[in-house]
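Researcher: We plan to redesign the surface later, but first we want a full-length starting point. Tokens attached.
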């Protein structure tokens, strides 16, 4: 099985090397033992023992040199792969928003913690003409570099179609058709896509097979489940658009399954109920504090080593923008 990034390959001597070395050492030992009384009487015996010992030492030295040489080569290859992964991580981090819009009637906090250096999770916030805001969270199937490549592809397509001013359902339909054409059936993405219209003070959303957001405030208990299947599965998928009105203080919690499926050593999942309890206990606090509380609770539950990418996007309605303001 190929090594995962960051895993060091320890090169061992081959079976043939071990047999040759053991044979030489065993033969030398037997010859030395059986001829111990002849060393002072026979130059031939002395020469033979010297030759055998020297040869065994040479074979041992060559075996050790070979192991060291291959180990240095493995370390060089590992360093090269780590450099490539670090570069890919820098590129991926540049795809996430550096800052969030501050005057559109919504505030945001978001974080993505990769499990394997680079992530297949994706979140974004876009400002569109007319004061509209788009926010999205997606979870690409798989992990590592292949998922990260698909994530960057999805990001590029989403920016293009969203900035064209298309309705939310058509945005998701175009993303779906693109992924179906460029990937195989095993590659897909769950996606929650939402567009905020400050004039109407409403949110249009599509839930394409993603985990249901947790909502607090006037929307508490509402299921934001309208949409369709994950994008990239079926070429002809259509996506329904849901609509909700937001009031000041309403909070949405979007997350990837790396949070709810984080497990203890005994295999017990963190679960949606615990996530909702953590958010509920701090729902009136600043979003960045809620974010920190959630990440801390997940790490306390499952330990510092994450088995899956953890992504969290928090959205809160602030002082709502009045139409014509």
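Model: Full-length starting sequence:
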């Amino acid at each position: 099985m190929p090594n995962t990034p960051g895993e060091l390959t320890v090169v061992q001597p081959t079976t043939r090397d071990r047999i040759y070395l053991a044979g030489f050492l065993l033969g030398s030992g037997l010859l030395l033992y059986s001829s111990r009384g002849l060393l002072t009487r026979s130059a031939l015996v002395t020469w033979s023992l010297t030759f055998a010992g020297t040869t065994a030492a040479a074979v041992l030295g060559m075996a050790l040199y070979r192991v060291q040489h291959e180990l240095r080569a493995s370390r060089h290859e590992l360093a090269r792969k780590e450099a490539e992964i670090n570069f890919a991580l820098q590129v991926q981090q540049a795809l996430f928003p550096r800052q969030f819009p501050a005057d559109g009637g919504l505030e945001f906090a978001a974080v993505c913690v990769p499990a394997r250096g680079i992530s297949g999770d994706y979140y974004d916030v876009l400002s569109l003409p007319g004061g509209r805001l788009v926010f999205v969270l997606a979870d690409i199937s798989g992990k590592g570099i292949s998922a990260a490549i698909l994530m960057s592809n999805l990001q590029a397509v989403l920016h293009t179609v969203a900035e064209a001013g298309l309705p939310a359902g058509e945005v998701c339909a175009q993303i779906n058709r693109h992924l179906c054409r460029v990937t195989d059936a095993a590659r897909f993405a769950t996606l929650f896509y939402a567009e905020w219209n400050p004039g109407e003070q409403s949110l249009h959303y599509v839930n394409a097979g993603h985990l249901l957001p947790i909502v607090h405030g006037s929307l508490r208990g509402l299921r934001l489940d309208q949409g369709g299947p994950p994008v990239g599965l079926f070429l002809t998928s259509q996506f329904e658009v849901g609509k909700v009105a937001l009031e000041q203080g309403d909070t949405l919690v979007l997350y990837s399954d790396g949070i709810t499926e984080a497990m203890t050593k005994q295999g017990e999942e963190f679960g949606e109920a615990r996530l909702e309890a953590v958010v509920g206990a701090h729902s009136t606090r600043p979003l960045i504090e809620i974010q920190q509380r959630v990440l801390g609770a997940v790490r306390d539950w499952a330990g510092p080593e994450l088995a899956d990418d953890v992504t969290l996007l928090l959205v809160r309605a602030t002082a709502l923008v009045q139409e014509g303001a």
